[in-house]
Design goal:
Chain lengths: ~725, ~725
C-alpha cells in the first residue's frame, strides 16, 4: 500500500486578526501574511537583518482551524536567521517571518511591535484610533559597489535596488543629499537606510540599518504655539512643548498683525522670522528632551489660522485684512522644511494643512480631523468651539457642516489679563469659591493638592498664617531656584473662566459683569469704579504679591465669550436648529475646563451638561493625526472643501447678537439645563441685595462703554 | 422639387503639412487642426486674446482636395476677433483659428510663426532640425475674483482654471511663488500668464498676457565656460557668452581640482562658488546683451565633464579621483536653479544632463545629442573627438558606440601656452606660413582681413614698416580704449594647431617636435636648446611685444594630440576596426580649424579629408538641444546608458601608445590620405638638411624628457 501524497497546501492562521488561508508549502510566513492582508513589519524586506517581522509560532494540533498535523511545520532557522538570534536576545517561540517557510499547519501570533500599522489611541472625548501610516517611511537596502567596468552612480544603483526590492519606481533624490551620498554609502559599507517621502522622494540617507523615524506636529496659534514630537514608528508622542507666539510683540490680535505686516518696512519678514525662530527653538527643545538630534526629524505638519498660515508661508496677509478676504492658497502646501527656514533634517518635508476661508484656517481643518463632526449622526447637532484668540466654530453633522470664526481676543489664553499667563507650571487652572464665605480654593498646574490642602507655614493655606520677613525671603529664593513646592504664578485660561463663573455663582458679580458694591470681603478692594478680587494671597504666590482678578479681566472674558456665543447662535440660525446635542470645547487654554463653568459664563449655548466635553488642543491633535497618517492629509483636503464657511462675524446682525450676549447668563429660559444653578446664583444676589437685572438701556450703555474701553486698552 | 440637404461636414486642408479631413460644420479651425494633429500655437487657448493662432484662409474652389463650393466657408469675425484686429495690424486673409467656424470647404495655410512646434536648424556638419518643444511652457488664463461667499485661494482658482482649460491636472505651485501671487494676480486684473515646467509645476506667474520665454544652455569646461541664451519660443540663440572657468586658479587639470577639493579646507565650497559666480556673471552679461532681465529666464540646462558636474552639484569629487572612479549620480538631475545658487527667475528649473562614467561626463552626452553618432549607418565608423582639457572620444555607429576620455591638457584651449588665450577678440585663430620665405600670414578673431592685408602704417603689415615711438604710444592707447583696428593679442587653440602644422609643413619643426637648428630666419631665435618663433611682430600686436610660439608650446600640443590620437587608436582596436569613415572635431577651442592641419599634427587618425568636419562647441549645442526640446532630455538619458564606456587611458597599453603617438606624423603608411602633404614636408626638411627621422632610442629618450618636463612645468 503506497503512502498518501503529501498535501501541497496547509492552513495558516494569523492572530490577533484571525485571518487564515491554505498556503502552498514553501511560502514564507511574511509572504503568507501579505497574501492575507496581514501587515507584518519588514524594513529589510526579507534580508533577515531588521528582525522587525518577528512572530510567535504556535505549532501543534488546532482542530478548530483545521490544523491536524503536529510537528515540523516550519523550516528550521537558516544561517542568516541563526546569526540574527545569536546577536539578539532570543524569545521563546519567536521566528523571523521572512526566514521560515510553511511545512505544515500553523497558528501564528503577530505581536503588537511586529504589526506594520500600529495604532495609537487619542485620549479625548471622541476617542478614536489613529492608524500609524506616515508620509515618510524607511527602507533598508544593500547595493553592489561600483567597478571599473560598471561606473554607474551610487544613486542610480540605489534607485535600481529600491525599485527592484520595493517597487519604488520613479523615485527622485532630494538634490541637496547628493553631496553626502557617497560618503554615507561607503560609511555603511554599501548598506543604507533611506527615508522616502510619499513613495516619491528620498529625503534622507543613513549608513547601515536604522529604524528611528520622527516628526513634528505644530499648532501655531495667534498667542500660543504648541508642538508635539512624535515617534513615527509607534505613533507615540515623545514630548510636547509650547511657548508664546513671539509675534504677540507686534500685535495682540490678527488684524493688528495684518496691519503690522502691511505697513511696516520688513513687517512680514519680521513676523515670519519670529514664528520660524520660535519653531526652531521649540524643535530644539523637544529634540533635546527626547534625546534625539534635529536631523533625525524628517517630517513636520503645521496648522494655524489663515493669518498665521500666510505669515508662516511668507505670504503677505494683506488680502485677509480686507473684503472679500481671499487667501493666496486654500489647498494643502507641501514644501521643503528648509525653504521655510526650519532646521530639521536637510531634506525634511513640511506639510501645511489646507485652510477653509479667509477667516477659518488650517487649525479648524485640524479640529475637524481630530473630532470628525462630519461623522456625526444625521439626527444629532454637534457644536465644536475652538477657543483661541480667534475663536472658531463648527456646527452640524454628516449631512451639513458649517464653520465660522469669531474675534474672541486673547483673554482665554491668559493674555490681556492682569495676572494672566500661559498654561504652564504655577498657573491657577481650577478655582472654587465658597458662596457663603467667599473663601477661595485653587489648584495650580504642576501641584496635585488644592491650595486648601497646602498646609500651614511658608506655603501655608490660611490667609492669616503669618509669614516672617525671613520666611518670605527664603520662600522667594527657593521659588527662584526652582526649589520647594510650586506656588501660584498667575492664572491661565481655564482658571479665569472658572474664577468668573464661581464669582458669578457666589453672587459677587452682577449679570452685567460688575463686582457688586454691596460685597464686604477682605479679598475685594475698590479703586474708583473698578474692583479687584484676590484669588491667591501673597504667601500662596511665587511673586510674594497677591494674584487677583479685576473688573477689566471680567470684561475681557465677557467680550470673548460673547463673540463665541453670538457666533454659535447665528450659525444655529443659519442651520435652522434651536438646540445642540453635543458640545466639544477645544483650545490650548489650560487644563480641561469644567463644562458647567463654561456654560455658566455663557461661552456656549445651552446643552445637556453630560454632552459637553472639553477636548484640549484639538487643532494640535489634528496636526498629529495628519503627521501620523498620510491618508488623513487627503481627508483634510476633502473636509476643507466640503465644510460650509459662513461669514457670521461679518453679518450686520452679528453686532446686535454680540451685545445681546455680553451679560452673564441670567435668563433661565435660554439655559434650561442650568436653571438650578442660575436660580441659586440669583437667590444669592437677592440675599445680598445685589442687582439681578439691568434695564435694556443701562445694559447697552454699559456694553458700549465696555467695548470702547477694551478697544482703548 | 426639394433642395438637397446641406452637407454636415466639409473638407478642410491644412498647409504646409497637407493634412486634411472632413470636418463637422461649426468646428473651429483650431479644433479642426488639433483633431488632425496640426499643432497651431494658442497660448490663450481660444480666448481670442493672444493672436498666436493666426492662419491664412484661402477660400474657394479646390477640386484637387475635393473642395467644390466657393463662398462663405467660415463664420464672420465675432466681436472679440474684430476687437483683436482693431488693435493689431490686419494682414490679408488672416483669421484667428480659434474664432472662426467651418461652414464650407477650406484650404488653410498655417504660417511659420503660428506653428506650435517651431524648428531651428543647427548650423553644423550634421545639419539637423531641432523641434522647439521646451520643458517650460506658457499658459494664459483669466480667473474669477474671490467673493465673500467663495473665498477659495487665488492659487486654487488658478489651478482649477488651468485644469479645466488646458487639462493640466495635478499641477503644483513652487511654494516660493506664494508670497507674490496675490499681488501679481491683482496687478493683471485677474488675467495671468503662468510658466509651467514639464506640465507639473508652475514656476513663474506674471500679470496679464505675456509671451516671452527664455532659457540658458551651458557647457562648463575645465578651462572655458560657454553659455547660450535662447528664446524658447523660436529656438533662436540670442547671445552667446563665454569666459575662463575661474576654477583654473585652483588647478589646471581635473585631478588637481579633485585634489584641491579633497585636501583644502572649504576646497569644494571654493570651487563650487567659483563656477556658480561665473555662471551668474555670464547670465547677467547675456541677459543685458539681449535686453531682458534675469527673472525672465526660467530654465537652464548644464553639461560638463564628470568632475565639473560633481563640483557644480556641490558633490565632493573624491571618488572620481580614485579607482574605481564611481560617480555619486549618473542620471540626469532636475532641481531648482536657486538651490544651486543661480540667480535667475526665483522658480527657475535647472537640468543637468546625465553622465556616462567617472571620466566621461554630461558634456560627452551632449555631444552625442548634437551629433547623433548612434544614428550612423551600420557600415560606417564615426569618430568624434571633443577637444578640451579632458579630451573625449566617441567611436562607432548605430550598432555599437564606445566612449573614452583622454587627459589632453589645456593647450588646445590656449592655456599653458606662452601667448595662449581664449577664443576672444584679438586671438590669432588662423595661421599660414610660407614654406619658402617663412613669412607668416594670420587672422585674428574680430577682424576680417588677414594680417598680410592690414596695410602699412601703425597697423601696417610689413615686418620692416618702422613705427615711431609716438605712433606706438598712440596705438597702445587706442588699443586700451578699444579704438582703432583689432590687433593680435595672443593665440587661441585653433591658431596654435595651425601654427604647429604650418611650421611642420614648412620644414621648420622636426618630426620629434623640435625647431630645426639649421633654420635661419629673423623670426626664429634661440635660448640654449629652446627656440621661439615670431608669429606677430610688435606692431601687429596690441601689447607692442612680439607674439611667439615656443619649443614648450609645441611640446604641450604634442602631449595633447598624442593623448587624443592614442585614445582613438585604442578605441579602434577595442571595436576591431582599422579605419574611420567620418571624423567630427568638436571643442570650444576657437574657430573651426582646418581638418588638414588637425591631421598634419596627428590629432586624429587618418581619414578622407572630405569626411573630417569641425563642429565647434558641440557639447554646448547638445545642451541647447536639451534646452529646446524636453524629449531630447529623455533621449540623452537613454544614450548615456546605452553608450559603452571604455577606460582606455587606464589600460597599461595606453602609456606605450601615447609615447608612440608623440612625434609629428612622418610615416606615410599611417596617413595614406596625407601622403602628398607629408612627402612635401619631408622634401623641405631634406632640402634644408633637417633630420627627418629619430632613432627609436633617441625618440623615446626625448619623449621621456618631454613628459617629465611638461609635468614639472
Amino acid at each position: 500500500m503506497s503512502e498518501p501524497a503529501a498535501p501541497t497546501t496547509y492552513r495558516v492562521v494569523f492572530q490577533p486578526s484571525g485571518r487564515q488561508a491554505d498556503v502552498p508549502v514553501g511560502t514564507t510566513l511574511l509572504d503568507a501574511g501579505r497574501a492575507m492582508g496581514v501587515e507584518i513589519e519588514a524594513i529589510c524586506n526579507g534580508r533577515q537583518t531588521c528582525g522587525k517581522c518577528q512572530v510567535v509560532v504556535e505549532e501543534g494540533f488546532f482542530p478548530k482551524y483545521g490544523i491536524t498535523s503536529a510537528a515540523d511545520h516550519l523550516t528550521a532557522p537558516d544561517g542568516r536567521e541563526r546569526q540574527y538570534w545569536e546577536s539578539h536576545p532570543p524569545l521563546p517561540g519567536r521566528r523571523l517571518a521572512c526566514a521560515c517557510e510553511v511545512q505544515g499547519g500553523l497558528l501564528v501570533f503577530v505581536p503588537e511591535e511586529s504589526q506594520a500599522r500600529k495604532q495609537v489611541v487619542r485620549k479625548a472625548a471622541t476617542e478614536r484610533a489613529i492608524v500609524v501610516d506616515p508620509a515618510v517611511r524607511l527602507y533598508y537596502v544593500e547595493i553592489e559597489p561600483p567597478t571599473l567596468e560598471r561606473q554607474l552612480g551610487d544613486w542610480d544603483r540605489l534607485a535600481a535596488e529600491l525599485a527592484a526590492r520595493f517597487g519604488l519606481t520613479n523615485l527622485r533624490l532630494d538634490p541637496i543629499l547628493l553631496g553626502s551620498l557617497q560618503q554615507i554609502v561607503r560609511a555603511g559599507d554599501w548598506r543604507i537606510t533611506v527615508t522616502v517621502w510619499q513613495d516619491r522622494e528620498v529625503i534622507r540617507v543613513q549608513p547601515g540599518y536604522c529604524e528611528e523615524l520622527y516628526g513634528l506636529a505644530v499648532d501655531i496659534g495667534s498667542t500660543t504655539i504648541a508642538m508635539h514630537l512624535c515617534d513615527l514608528r509607534t505613533g507615540a508622542v515623545l514630548t510636547t512643548a509650547s511657548r508664546m507666539n513671539p509675534q504677540v510683540a507686534y500685535g495682540e490680535d490678527l488684524m493688528s498683525r495684518v496691519s503690522y505686516a502691511d505697513n511696516r518696512e520688513d513687517g512680514l519678514a519680521t513676523l515670519h522670522s519670529a514664528v520660524i525662530g520660535a519653531l526652531n527653538d521649540l524643535a530644539a527643545e523637544a529634540a533635546a528632551e527626547a534625546d534625539i538630534t534635529l536631523d533625525m526629524i524628517t517630517d513636520i505638519v503645521l496648522v494655524g489660522n489663515s493669518v498665521m498660515h500666510h505669515i508662516l508661508l511668507n505670504i503677505p496677509p494683506t488680502q485677509l485684512g480686507q473684503s472679500p478676504f481671499g487667501p493666496a492658497v486654500s489647498d494643502a502646501v507641501d514644501m521643503k522644511a528648509r525653504d521655510l527656514g526650519l532646521k530639521l533634517a536637510p531634506g525634511a518635508q513640511a506639510h501645511v494643512l489646507p485652510i477653509e476661508a479667509g477667516h477659518v484656517g488650517a487649525d479648524n481643518v485640524a479640529v475637524m480631523l481630530a473630532e470628525r463632526p462630519d461623522l456625526a449622526p444625521a439626527d444629532e447637532i454637534w457644536l465644536i468651539v475652538d477657543v483661541g484668540t480667534n475663536g472658531e466654530l463648527l456646527l452640524g453633522n454628516s449631512q451639513r457642516l458649517c464653520s465660522a470664526s469669531s474675534p474672541t481676543g486673547p483673554a482665554f489664553e491668559g493674555a490681556q489679563i492682569r495676572h494672566g499667563m500661559r498654561a504652564a507650571a504655577g498657573a491657577i487652572e481650577r478655582v472654587r469659591i465658597d458662596s457663603e464665605t467667599l473663601e477661595v480654593n485653587f489648584k495650580v498646574i504642576g501641584r496635585d493638592e488644592w491650595s486648601a490642602d497646602w498646609g500651614p507655614g511658608r506655603d501655608g493655606a490660611g490667609a492669616d498664617a503669618a509669614e516672617t520677613p525671613a520666611e518670605r525671603r527664603q520662600r522667594k529664593r527657593q521659588a527662584l531656584l526652582g526649589q520647594g513646592p510650586i506656588l501660584a504664578a498667575g492664572i491661565c485660561g481655564s482658571g479665569i473662566i472658572e474664577a468668573v463663573a464661581e464669582l458669578f455663582m457666589a453672587g459677587v458679580l452682577t449679570p452685567d459683569g460688575r463686582f457688586a458694591p454691596q460685597i464686604q470681603s477682605p479679598r475685594l478692594s475698590w479703586q474708583g469704579a473698578k474692583a479687584e478680587f484676590v484669588l491667591a494671597w501673597p504667601h500662596q504666590s511665587s511673586t510674594g504679591r497677591p494674584i487677583v482678578i479685576t473688573s477689566d479681566d471680567v470684561r475681557a472674558i465677557q467680550l470673548g465669550k460673547a463673540a463665541l456665543y453670538s457666533g454659535a447662535r447665528l450659525l444655529m440660525e443659519r442651520l435652522g436648529v434651536d438646540h445642540v446635542d453635543k458640545v466639544l470645547l477645544a483650545g490650548a487654554f489650560g487644563s480641561y475646563i469644567d463644562a458647567r463653568h463654561a456654560m455658566v459664563i455663557g461661552m456656549i449655548p445651552d446643552a445637556d451638561l453630560a454632552k459637553v466635553h472639553t477636548v484640549g488642543n484639538s487643532a494640535g491633535d489634528g496636526a498629529r493625526i495628519a503627521l501620523l497618517n498620510k491618508n488623513q492629509r487627503e481627508e483634510a483636503r476633502r473636509l476643507a472643501r466640503w465644510v460650509d464657511y459662513v461669514a457670521v462675524a461679518l453679518e450686520p446682525r452679528f453686532q446686535d447678537a454680540f451685545v445681546e450676549a455680553l451679560p452673564l447668563p441670567h435668563k433661565y429660559d435660554a439655559f434650561p439645563h442650568l436653571a438650578d444653578v442660575l436660580a441659586a446664583a440669583a437667590a444669592r444676589r437677592r440675599a445680598r441685595g445685589v442687582a439681578d437685572t439691568v434695564s435694556a438701556r443701562e445694559r447697552r450703555l454699559a456694553v458700549r462703554r465696555q467695548v470702547t474701553g477694551a478697544v482703548q486698552e
